[in-house]
Automatic annotation (TrEMBL):
NCBIfam families assigned: SUF_scaf_2
Database matches in Gene3D superfamilies: 3.90.1010.10
CDD domains found in the cross-reference section: IscU_like (cd06664)
Name of this protein: Nitrogen fixation protein NifU
GO MF assignments: iron ion binding; iron-sulfur cluster binding
Length: 145
């Protein structure tokens, strides 16, 4: 596939998650709540999770921000739901590595997250893409509010 067609595909995946976010809302029975913001551009995330033992049973988000920030949150919620907190944290580290242009562990499936790989070319946007992931890491580590 040509680079131009791949870029178009990635843009359409990002816009689909932005316009039709997955797991948007608040978990009424959530036992982990994290609020974070990116003061650089004004992105805000409110993450609620239901973590039982070491498993993320459910997760939802609300927030305001750019398409990259909100699409990343949508993608993240899809990927971590049902995962162990350890696996969710590994995904967050892999995603962070991708944002920094590092070599990735091929055994970790990123699904739609690969569409955000181009963000690495725009350092100012990396914080947008990683905001929800940082919130999730804070939550699963026990730093919830």
């Amino acid at each position: 596939m040509s680079t131009n067609k791949l870029d178009q595909l990635y843009r359409s995946v990002i816009m689909d998650h932005y316009k039709n976010p997955k797991n948007k809302g608040v978990l009424e029975d959530g036992n982990v709540t994290i609020d974070m913001n990116n003061p650089t551009c004004g992105d805000v995330i409110h993450l609620t999770m239901n973590v039982e033992g070491d498993v993320v049973k459910d997760v939802k988000f609300e927030g305001e921000g750019c398409s990259i920030s909100m699409a990343s949150a949508s993608m993240m919620t899809q990927l971590i739901k049902g995962k162990s907190t350890e696996d969710a944290t590994k995904l967050a580290h892999t995603f962070s590595d991708m944002m920094l242009g590092k070599d990735l562990d091929d055994s970790i499936e990123l699904d739609d997250l690969e569409a955000l790989s181009g963000v690495a070319q725009f350092p100012a946007r990396i914080k947008c893409a990683t905001l929800s992931w940082k919130a999730m890491e804070k939550g699963v580590s026990g730093e919830s509010q």
